[in-house]
Amino acid sequence: MSRTVIRGGLVITAADEIHADVLIEDGRIAALAASGTPAAEAFTAERTIDATGKYVIPGGVDGHTHMEMPFGGTYAADTFETGTRAAAWGGTTTIVDFAIQTVGGGLREGLDAWHAKAEGNCAIDYGFHMIVSDVNQETLKEMDLLVEEGVTSFKQFMAYPGVFYSDDGQILRAMQRAADNGGLIMMHAENGIAIDVLVEQALARGETDPRYHGEVRKALLEAEATHRAIRLAQVAGAPLYIVHVSAQEAVAELARARDDGLSVFGETCPQYLFLSTDNLAEPDFEGAKYVCSTPLRPREHQAALWKGLRTNDLQVVSTDHCPFCFTGQKELGRGDFSKIPNGMPGVENRMDLLHQAVVDGHISRRRWIEIACATPARMFGMYPKKGTIAPGADADVVVYDPHAEQVISAETHHMNVDYSAYEGRRITGRVETVLSRGEPVITEREYTGRAGHGVYTPRSTCQYLD
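^ thats the sequence. predicted structure below, dont judge the formating
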């Protein structure tokens, strides 16, 4: 039996803050006891980690990543090996990535392909959502089978006609199936048909720079699609999770639906909380680094996103980590913004940026853990195995130094991408040590993990429903 004890830290979960020692046995949390008490002093272990003056928090759960994802004639730059290692450096110990059904192919085929990419390569634990690109009778039957084996969420796109796009009828059929089998539909809510018209018109006017990516993907078209998705889910009697909410008008649609008692949930991402159209407008094609969909919005949208996180109209912060190098990948869109691969790096930065939000007074410490660890674990059927520090939970634990200062930079990050979206940003707080199922992956700022430690994690259905 291997034992570790973490002594003297402030243990923070979504529910509590307590100065406690944490005993880990065989990869799981065995017990907690208030520091300095006889119960805590009775903990014995081969390995002791001193967390005095530090936070002891659950490992982050990033419910939205795209490792090795094909897009626009290229692939996301992080493999499961490099991407999960970077996640660990940033205090994230579980990711849920997206397997893709190709049009004409089955869900199983897509899922098997993603299992093959990930197996034996991950530094931390992982699960899969399924992107449904081709709704037909076979697909609907396969959804039932996938739910039974632990792939319990299905993503659809109202954007990207000709690639991932589903029309309202296909969306409704999938939602009806999810209502029956307990699956959760995740929606990329943008009116892709209308956006394609605006893209064509902008290019015809010679508006080719990256900033036009944000101008054609209008906030109103995100809000319209969000509203439509909510109403379709209501007709189907299915819960709905809107991914990467970026516009205040879309937050308003979610808030209205939740006020009406609907099971509608939303995530946002650090890029929408910390970056804006000012970045998309950076000169010399630098704005291409910030092209993602939904796009960055004018800075005034940020207040609505922070408010949504405080009022629980937005429940989760994920990264939508989908990195493309500036050189050779983002550059594919020089002279035509519509050819810039959509996506940004961020899996390593999320926990730190959200701690900065605590420092800045946007959210509380417990809310930080709630939106980054506990709620994604509950939303995607992994709680309390993941997302908390409690007896019986996996020992996915981060010792976090809330006083350390760092400057985010591509020179020091571990993501396999040649730029940082947050280059030069000074933040307070840094990961010091990371355990994944009790094994040290980061030890006092040294990587001590290995590819293949991370295991596939089947999930139950959404635990966040009333």
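The longest helix spans residues 219-236.
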